[in-house]
Design brief:
mainly alpha, binds heme C, Flavocytochrome C3, Chain A, domain 2, 19% helix, single chain, 3 helices
Length: 152
């Protein structure tokens, strides 16, 4: 008991020191030195890559990234600019890659005569790219293609 009594002031000191540590000790690559409760100023939007070159996919079932600019394209309940070119019925005229058949199935697997609502907001899954260096280093490599058995 006496030992604990002697230790108490020390524990108190440790607690005070821990509390006094600036919250910026841990630096996050995306946030910089801003403390966790503070709001950071988001970086300016860059210049999206617009080279029209379709990019290889990194794994099976990856939504392909967008190789063209999409600034100002209207996608709301009244109009979907993406479908103006990418709808299956428009592709022969627009020369865009038609959305795949998967985009016309509802969640119970029923084929629909129109794009599925699950696939309406294209940029939930497809994103344009900026040519910026990654903020943290990584050694990500593309997954080897999966070969499915025939007739499956
Ligand atoms: C004016 C016509 C047009 C519009 C509008 C358009 N695209 Fe495209 N898109 C294309 C064409 C053409 C390509 C083929 C590559 C290229 O030329 O850029 C393409 C390529 C793509 C690809 C690459 C597909 C693949 O298999 O690699 C994606 C993903 C895509 N577009 C998504 C979108 C999304 C999402 C929108 C709306 C925000 C959109 N596009 C609006 C014409 C269009
Ligand atoms: C929920 C995610 C999701 C949404 C939303 C979505 N897609 Fe996709 N898309 C995918 C995935 C995953 C693939 C690749 C696998 C496949 O074809 O289903 C794909 C493939 C594509 C392709 C390539 C087709 C091919 O044959 O190579 C195009 C083009 C495309 N999508 C356009 C669109 C457009 C335009 C919209 C909006 C109207 C849209 N997608 C909405 C997930 C999505």
């Amino acid at each position: 008991m006496t030992h604990l009594r002697k230790l108490l002031p020390l524990l108190g000191l440790v607690a005070v020191l821990a509390w006094a540590q600036p919250a910026t000790k841990l630096q996050d690559a995306a946030r910089g030195p801003a403390a966790v409760p503070d709001t950071t100023r988001p970086p300016m939007l860059g210049n999206a890559v617009n080279d029209d070159v379709r990019r290889p996919r990194n794994y099976d079932t990856q939504p392909p990234t967008i190789p063209h600019r999409v600034d100002g394209y209207q996608v709301d309940r009244n109009f979907n600019k993406c479908l103006d070119c990418h709808a299956r019925g428009k592709a022969s005229f627009s020369q865009a890659i038609p959305v795949s058949a998967t985009h016309y199935f509802d969640r119970s697997g029923k084929e629909l005569p129109h794009i599925s609502t699950r696939r309406y907001f294209c940029m939930q899954c497809h994103v344009p790219q900026d040519s910026v260096p990654p903020i943290v280093g990584n050694s990500f490599g593309a997954a080897p293609p999966v070969s499915l058995p025939a007739n499956k």
